[in-house]
């Protein structure tokens, strides 16, 4: 996996580890998995809404990464490359199985249903109950988002990626990222106006 010598200093050192993976270094692959498995598993849970399915998806993502290790050109950060594989894999899963409106996290009353990180519930049981009610309404709204809008929302609002990083992951322009995010947030306005804010506003990063 070659890179221009003039830009080598600026390349994420993780690409060197990925080059060793491409050469068949099992220890390098184990280190790659250990470094990124937690964030990829979290991403898959947020995209798929099912912890069991997310674990399987994360394993499949790492398998794809292993197979593609010798083909990729070092550019940007390794984790955004892994995110791209993971998001595409999860979107394909959702489209293929047509399960978007049946995701378990659409039903917040299910105690086993995974969720995004809950909001700060503040002090006292009344505040906690109100925060939980608002969050449940927001989860139901997120579950109904079109897949491409959900992907942008997850990456920007919950994973904290910038517009540029999100565009790189999804293979779209920064303008498209902003447009999809705006549409996604508009779809959530009804729930937020009725129940209060439930989606992290975050800082818009470019």
Describe the structure concisely.
This protein has 206 residues and is mostly helical. It has 8 helices and no strands.
What does this structure look like?
The protein has 206 residues and is mainly alpha-helical. The chain contains 8 helices and no strands. The protein has helices at residues 14-22, 26-48, 51-68, 78-97, 125-143, 147-158, 163-170, 174-195. The longest helix is centred in the N-terminal third of the chain and has 23 residues, at 26-48. The radius of gyration is 18 Å and the shape is globular. The two termini are 29 Å apart.
Unreliable runs = 1-9, 99-115
How does the helix and strand content classify structurally?
A: mainly alpha
Helix content: 55-70%
What order do the helices and strands follow? HHHHHHHH
Provide a count of the helices. 8
| Percent range for β-strand residues | under 5%
Radius of gyration: 18 Å
Task: Note the gap between the termini.
Answer: 29 Å
Task: Give me the oligomer status.
Answer: single chain
Number of strands: 0
Largest sheet: none
Q: Estimate the mean pLDDT confidence.
A: 77
**3D shape:** globular
